[in-house]
């Protein structure tokens, strides 16, 4: 049986899809890239912005005829939009068989099995978690608990990298954000489960783990009289043999405590890279967003972070055109971006989310044209800063964890099936530095998964270009360069890598 799955949204969703695929493989499914070949088609969805939802409804619309011609196909909508829209999805696309929220994904194999067994006379199924006001805290927490991971190395972007969930949900309730409603209450996973899963990943050959949580640095777990913080977890994970790199996303500015900064500074395997979304440079906007900090708090945190961890790379997220944002408020964001020198920033136009406090309290009154202009202006400034900072790497040697063929090499191998990316000749590879900068260089496919010294000879806002350093009895030799400069990655490409 064949399974087609499409995933949008954040790393949480990528991980969820990996786990759903692993559980369906146990039922005899194999993956296909072609929805028309598939017996079961699943969409793992996101509700963070309207655009993410629109994408799924148009994909569903395109399946209408296929479903009429092949009524046995199972079509399922999973994830955050399933939790958010629930039965509305059946109304808009009556041929959908299955709706499953992110807290109920463990039920997917049994639901698909039942639907198939019923044949064309099947009934539609929906399994979602409780809403934030639909029970006691404990009941709501239980209904959002994720299922035990069944890892599937074949679904990961590379076998050498994996996400490990350490928290689910969010209790911060920023006024613009749908995540606390669709992902439920903030809950930390036990250190023993996290350590066991990471050891298993290391044994499977994984070299880099990225710890996931909506506010990952708010991690707290009480075990007897010991309270575990993220810094304690990093110390414990650091001892796992085989794991060479540890990252974590996303940080909440208010919870960037000194114990965590010390752990990042002192543990060599932990990336000197922190994603700490600021969202706006205006105190009045931050207040309307209910972010819980001021510009002054953030500035203090950033200074302290850079004092504790020299050469740390910090990245951020911004929302432009939030309700009532004036030109003057937006200019404060520009000023703070100019001052803060983020490695990169993800910039989003505000998208009103029905059901959030923002949608109830404020009007979405900044015209789309103004949102677009502010988005472009902020992006241009950030790109200029990223490029300047990347140029500082010219001539320097960096350590690169090799992730796989570069986009250019992948495209070339897709166009020329005679030269697959797994051949043993030189190809363009991509990887990341310890501070999360993307590096492209020529190498050999067998170097994928290794950590290599690379000297940087060129840079743009998104990418460093380099040559692998080869050392022979004290003499340094550089490999011959056959690299063609790739196109600068667009913001969209960068997003698909990180988000
Ligand atoms: N938990 C993370 C972010 C989750 S959503 C954190 O707290 O930082 C990822 C990003 O999407 C957010 O940082 C924010 O910049 C953006 N975002 C969230 N809701 C949005 C909305 N309604 N419109 C536009 N962007 C939004
Ligand atoms: Fe959303 Fe705020 Fe929670 Fe992040 S911290 S997931 S932006 S509510
Ligand atoms: Fe989207 Fe859900 Fe992630 S709403 S951003 S997929 S937590």
Rg, nearest Å: 23 Å
- Discrete helix count: 18
The small-molecule ligands in this entry are: S-adenosyl-L-homocysteine, iron/sulfur cluster, FE3-S4 cluster
How many β-strands, per DSSP? Answer: 22
Q: Distance N terminus to C terminus?
A: 30 Å
Taken together, the total number of domains comes to: 3
**What is the overall pLDDT average?**
91
CATH architecture of the largest domain: Alpha-Beta Horseshoe
CATH topology of the largest domain: pyruvate-formate lyase- activating enzyme
Helix content: 25-40%
How does the overall form come out from the CA principal axes?
Answer: globular
Strand content: 15-25%
Largest sheet geometry: 6 strands, parallel
The main sheet orders its strands as: 2-1-3-4-5-6
Topology:
Blueprint: E1 2-7, H1 11-25, E2 30-31, E3 40-45, H2 50-62, H3 64-69, E4 74-79, H4 80-85, H5 88-92, E5 98-100, H6 108-118, E6 125-127, H7 137-144, E7 161-165, E8 167-168, H8 179-183, E9 187-188, H9 191-203, E10 208-212, E11 220-223, E12 226-229, H10 230-238, E13 245-249, H11 258-266, E14 273-275, H12 283-289, H13 295-308, E15 313-320, H14 327-340, E16 345-349, H15 357-361, H16 368-391, E17 397-405, H17 407-415, E18 427-432, E19 438-443, E20 451-459, E21 463-472, E22 475-478, H18 491-498
Parallel strand pairs: 1-2, 1-3, 3-4, 4-5, 5-6, 7-10, 10-13, 14-15, 15-16, 19-21
Antiparallel strand pairs: 8-9, 11-12, 17-18, 17-20, 18-19, 20-21, 21-22
Helix pairs in contact: 10-11, 14-16
């Amino acid at each position: 049986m064949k399974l087609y799955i499409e995933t949008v949204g954040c790393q949480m969703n990528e991980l969820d899809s990996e786990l759903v695929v692993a559980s369906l493989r146990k039922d005899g499914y194999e993956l296909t890239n072609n929805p028309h070949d598939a017996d079961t088609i699943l969409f793992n969805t996101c509700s963070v912005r309207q655009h993410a939802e629109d994408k799924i409804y148009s994909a569903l619309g395109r399946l209408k005829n296929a479903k009429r011609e092949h009524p046995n196909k199972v079509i399922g909508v999973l994830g955050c939009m399933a939790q958010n829209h629930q039965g509305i999805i059946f109304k808009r696309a009556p041929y959908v068989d299955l709706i499953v929220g992110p807290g109920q994904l463990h039920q997917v194999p049994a639901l698909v099995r039942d639907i198939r067994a019923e044949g064309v006379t099947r009934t539609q199924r929906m399994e979602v978690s409780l809403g934030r006001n639909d029970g006691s805290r404990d009941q709501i927490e239980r209904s959002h608990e994720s299922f035990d991971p069944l890892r599937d190395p074949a679904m990961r972007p590379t076998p050498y990298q994996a996400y490990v969930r350490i928290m689910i949900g969010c209790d911060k309730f920023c006024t613009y954000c749908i995540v606390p409603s669709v992902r439920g209450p903030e809950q930390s996973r036990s250190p023993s489960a996290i350590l066991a899963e990471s050891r298993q990943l290391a044994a499977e050959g994984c070299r880099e783990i990225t710890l996931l949580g909506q506010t990952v640095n708010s991690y707290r777990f009480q075990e007897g009289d010991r309270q575990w913080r993220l810094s304690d977890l990093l110390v414990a994970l650091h001892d796992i043999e085989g794991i060479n790199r540890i990252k974590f996303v996303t940080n909440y500015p208010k919870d960037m405590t000194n114990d965590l900064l010390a752990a990042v500074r002192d543990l060599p395997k932990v990336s000197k890279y922190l994603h700490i979304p600021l969202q706006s440079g205006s105190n009045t906007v931050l207040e309307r967003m209910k972010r819980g900090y001021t510009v002054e708090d953030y500035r203090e945190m950033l200074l302290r972070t850079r004092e504790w961890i020299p050469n740390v790379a910090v990245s951020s997220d911004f929302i432009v055109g939030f309700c009532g944002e004036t030109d003057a408020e937006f200019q404060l964001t520009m000023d703070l971006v100019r001052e803060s020198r983020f490695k990169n920033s993800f910039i989003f136009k505000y998208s009103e989310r029905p059901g959030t406090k923002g949608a109830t309290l404020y009007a979405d009154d900044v015209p789309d044209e103004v949102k677009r202009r502010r988005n472009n202006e902020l992006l241009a400034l950030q790109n200029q800063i990223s490029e300047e900072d990347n140029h500082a790497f010219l001539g320097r040697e960096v350590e690169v964890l090799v992730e796989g063929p570069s986009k250019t090499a992948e495209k070339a191998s897709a166009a020329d099936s005679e030269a697959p990316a797994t051949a043993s000749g030189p190809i363009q590879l991509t990887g990341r530095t310890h501070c999360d900068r993307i590096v492209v260089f020529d190498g050999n496919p067998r170097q994928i998964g290794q950590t290599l010294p690379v000297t940087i000879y060129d840079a743009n806002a998104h990418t460093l270009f380099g040559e692998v350093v080869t050392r022979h009895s004290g003499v340094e030799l550089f490999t011959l360069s056959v690299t063609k400069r790739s196109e600068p990655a667009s913001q969209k490409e960068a997003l698909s890598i990180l988000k």
